[in-house]
Amino acid sequence: MTEFEAGAVARRALPLLDLTDLGETCTEPRIDALCRDAKRGGVAAICVWPRFIEQGARALAGTGIRIATVINFPDGGEDCARATDDTAEALRDGADEIDLVLPYRALLRGEAAIARDMVEAVRDTCGSAILKVILETGELADPDRIREASRIALEAGADFLKTSTGKSAVSATPEAAEAMLDEIRASGRPAGLKVSGGLRSIADAATYLALADRLMGPAWVSPKTFRLGASSLFAALIQARES
Known about the structure:
The protein is of the alpha/beta class and 243 residues long. It has one domain (3-242): Alpha-Beta Barrel (TIM Barrel), CATH 3.20.20. 50% of the residues lie in helices and 15% in strands. The protein contains 11 helices and 8 strands. The chain has an 8-stranded parallel sheet. The mean pLDDT is 98.
């Protein structure tokens, strides 16, 4: 990839970025730094643990940068009441977007209703807030399972499908993203894709952007339909944008 090509990808990717800190040892100073970076990069959103929502919302007030948080994360448990309670609290604290981990183990056991019920319940709780459903595609592994999980999430009201938590051994892959985009297109309803985990280079970001362009059309990608969870690339994207 030439410097010119990297710059073009960076200028396209930065406004699609969910700048994330979900480290186990995350601190308030790290969230302050994340918010400064978010403003510098002009990203779509930050994604933080629920306890940092209010801090992020204060720091980014008036910028248009959205506040996302994670629910049922990272384990994808099956306690629906807890997921809805945690969602309601996050929204009260100022979250604009909810990234919910699908109870994917229930799906693997053949109990799809458990997964569907949770997404529907959290969708109802979200109201007008954006709901992204994390499929944990590396654990589902089989393309047919990924497609089934995609359909369940979309039918239950997801605004975005998200590949992975970034905490599993296998994160996003182009094959999983293609299956998810196929199901979004087949659903006939407006929904987006968030590719998260496993993006290690600007070339990786370019791969997923090209995939979306090919499957969904060159005018489809925008912050309302496509996000990248690639915070480790932030510095490289900034450098490429400004070079």
